[in-house]
Amino acid sequence: MEPSRVMFWVIASVIMCVQTIPRSRNHPQPSCALVRVVGRCGPRQDDRMRLYLSSFRLGAEPERLRALARSDRPVAVIANACDAASSDDLRSAAVRAELDALTGIGLAGFELDLRDHVGDPDGLAAALAEAEIAWLRGGNVFVLRHALAVSGADQVFRTLLAEDRIVYAGYSAGPCCLAPSLRGLELCDPVDDLLRLHPRAEVPWDGLGVLDRAFVPHLDTPGHPETGAVGEIARHYREQGQPYWALRDGQALVVDGDHVQLR
Fold first, then answer.
1. Structural domains of the chain, count
2. pTM of the predicted model as reported, rounded to 2 decimal places
3. Do residues 71 and 133 touch, judged by C-beta distance below 8 A?
4. For residue 2, is pLDDT > 60?
């Protein structure tokens, strides 16, 4: 394989002071944040990348998402985590809710349906080139990860992030897909949702590996219906000695180059 096509792990030096990472007795956070992104061999002009990873919806400080944008290009809303919705109307309503929320903070958006790009990574890359931000909403993480795989979006996002050409943003399932592995998340998101849609699909247990640990949203959030299930996921990770990002609703993990904050 030619060196220019070889992909390898690049460790982005992303170290943040401990006081910027909120502590919790039940869900201890790391004293430093390590985020890794896949890059191309050879020199790169910029090792920066931008992430806005919310527990639920836009979070308590959506202005931090806007601050990551460098142009007025629109937001590509990817709602494929909702592909297992019981009706097309429910899925359409989910997309509309995201577009309306983004409009409310001054961001124009459009839906980018990964189902329109199965086996077409070049077409998908061209569509994402029109966007400043990709917003991946919540739903079933295995359904979303499958859609990312069959469209080639997983590789496209790795490249775009390595070259700092897009902001990867979203909540719940969207950020969860950035972990090295999705194992454990089946305690909350049923894999059967994926197999109903695609009976011959293999369950995708691997994440994109952009984050160095699992992302666990909705923790300690009594008003969210999944807080109990994700609490079990967090307990499982602790018992396994597996680190994870612990977020309650309202919080977001924000990465802007070497600056990382969870608040």
1. 1
2. 0.86
3. no
4. no
